[in-house]
Amino acid sequence: MIDSHKRRGVMLVFCAPSGAGKTTITRQLLEKDDLISLSVSATTRAARPGEEEGVHYFFKSVDGFKHMIADDELLEWAEVFGNYYGTPRQPVEEALSAGRDVLFDIDWQGARQLREKGGDDVVSVFILPPSSAELERRLRDRGQDADDVIMKRMAKAGAEISHWEEFDYVLVNDNLEQCLASVEHIIGAERVKRERQMELNAFVKKLLTD
Amino acid sequence: MIDSHKRRGVMLVFCAPSGAGKTTITRQLLEKDDLISLSVSATTRAARPGEEEGVHYFFKSVDGFKHMIADDELLEWAEVFGNYYGTPRQPVEEALSAGRDVLFDIDWQGARQLREKGGDDVVSVFILPPSSAELERRLRDRGQDADDVIMKRMAKAGAEISHWEEFDYVLVNDNLEQCLASVEHIIGAERVKRERQMELNAFVKKLLTD
């Protein structure tokens, strides 16, 4: 039914503190839903062995990246440890126009920029851990890290969580299957929102005149 | 996951021309989802055999009904062939506060009144038939009706369809299973919208202070 009427894709933004389960959920979502693809970022950092241009990143010079910023060719961008990372506007716009959804792996700051540029195309979801004890457990499980490292991660998680109120939907991930089901509900619902179905006007006109 | 956090219910409004399949979809939805109940209307018409007060209708005198209008106790109301029909506010508010969703069987005019009174609690879905030919076929299948009766139904359907743009979601029912799935997506998504999860503030506060 969705496919029978051309629709504009959505920009899906999932944010969460590390340890909330975002990586697992997004991986499973991308495996299950062929209409969703992961956004490819532009970066000024050097390509690592095996990384392909246009697949893993669009590799840019610092000057090239700064020109993209100046020309408003980026939906969001940030500088991290001296390297620039950002989302080129054009490939995203092409995907949305073709009725494909684009998933973004960005933090709350990127999400905020994306909302400013993307408007109603942006659907944002915040994923929360079920408890701080569970969050700490998940962060510890990642390896034999020293307590101070864990504490730093907890602090970073807290900073991310503090922006939960900026998001359209909020999921508490105490059950992966239920959380993934909710994500699928959100996407399924956003796809049938009136304003995303670009050919409904023509369809209804035909319905009323035939 | 949804159940683990108290949420405010939603007012679900499905509108469609007769022949679009709304009755089948709502019946299957009510069978599948225990959290949704059908709104009980107040009416001034006489009870028919088997109709129970508070189950099928709240039966009111004309004076009683007019007092409910005057006291703003109705979320929407209309006069049909000399009888009054309307939706009492209190039982709906009690259901929403308890985290139960309420489904309304009303037309576009009722939906418009409901939006004015219900605000963000209202989630409205318009169901369209796949084509005017299919709509006519479905209307004819209902019995050996004369052409002029069919034509009257088609005209009434057209009048209802002309208000499709007032709705949040639009479904084209060319496949009942897909249409029902979309309805379930819509409800599942609306339930995890941030502003409907009333205890998230307390939950996040605990998450950040524990």
UniProtKB/TrEMBL annotation, chains A, B:
Domain Guanylate kinase-like: 9-188
Enzyme class: transferase
Taxonomic source organism: Thalassospira profundimaris
UniProt keyword Transferase, yes or no: yes
Gene Ontology MF: a single term: GMP kinase activity
HAMAP family the UniProt entry points to: Guanylate_kinase
Matches recorded under SUPFAM superfamilies: P-loop containing nucleoside triphosphate hydrolases (SSF52540)
Span of the signal peptide: none
Name of this protein: Guanylate kinase
Role according to the record: Essential for recycling GMP and indirectly, cGMP.
The encoding gene: gmk
Family classification: Belongs to the guanylate kinase family.
Reaction equation(s) it catalyzes: GMP + ATP = GDP + ADP
